[in-house]
Amino acid sequence: MMDKPKHLSQKQIDYCMECGLCTGSCPISRELSKFSPRQMIKQVVLDPDGGLEKSREIWACLSCAACSERCPAEIDFPEFISTHRQEARKAGNFPQESHHGILQAVAGLQTRDLKQQRTQWAREAGVFGDTGEYFYFVGCLPFFDVTFRYMDLSPLESARSVLTLLNKMGIEPVISNHERCCGHDALWCGDHATFHKLAEWNLEVIKSSCAKTVLFSCPEGYVTFKKYYPKYFGKLPFEVLHLTEFLAHELSAAGLSFQPSSTAPITYHDPCRLGRLAGIYEAPRQLLKSLPNTDLVEMERNRQNALCCGTSAWMECSSYSKAIQMERMQEAVQTGAQTLITACPKCQIHLACAQGGADSDLKVIDLYTYLRQRLSDSGANGG
Fold first, then answer.
1. What is the pTM of this model?
2. Separation CA 85–CA 160 (nearest Å)
């Protein structure tokens, strides 16, 4: 009898071996012919002693959950791949890190007791505190800002826009120098030791702030806190909200007014973590449609079927990742939109990188900057 992989029932395995929907749904499978989620599960069934853990394919998966979205056996393939990546690291099989491993090194440094100066941007952008009801978890945006400056891109512009919007709503959130990376990338690279250290630190920092609600502009930080912190640390002593949820619910009552969008159409890219992993599709669209005269045109693949931006956790940025990015950019161009909006800093970076190689003047911008740029001067609570 075949051995059963962790987290999968015998019924799921039986269905899986007779199916193939995952392979047809997987963006990597279309670019890398030998890659197949089903075949990876089969490999573990037939060779439980480490065949998959020793392969390179284990790192190619985007954990985008496109396969799980269509799986009739309801297999959580990202969870499957995450579990086996831990074993791969133990076997000496590591991912190829992107950008010379800078972001992995930064995450590792943050597991130590170091003094950070990561709130200067906030002092220049608005008003925040050390304690309060709302904690704005900024995540790795300050580090992205330095790393990707060569692209003429400032990921911190998104955080500045968030702080401006919150201040306009009368909210002075907690923003902390002591915050660390959420641990998302370490978790998905199979480095659970680093993930646990970062998570434990963050939980203590937030508890000390007395915050009742933690707000995230980054989908990766949000889903990591929402799904994986409780999994490993139990029920959290605060509420976790993505900013699109929060703004969609609260913005209309805040008395803010917005200028009309440009007359040109816009389109929206669903981040995998915010969409398929967290189930948030309508809140970002609701925010965009709330602006006067907005012409929001959907890409051919959107919501549950949206195409991934092409890479994950700053690893394995390969030729097939680039092909996926270019395919997504072409979908955006075909809508006739002049602006591509997303709610994920990594998606913005990856798609902006692809835009540089595309024959298009399509502008890639984050959702919060787009909202902030359209704030009327007469917005609530002053400047």
1. 0.92
2. 35
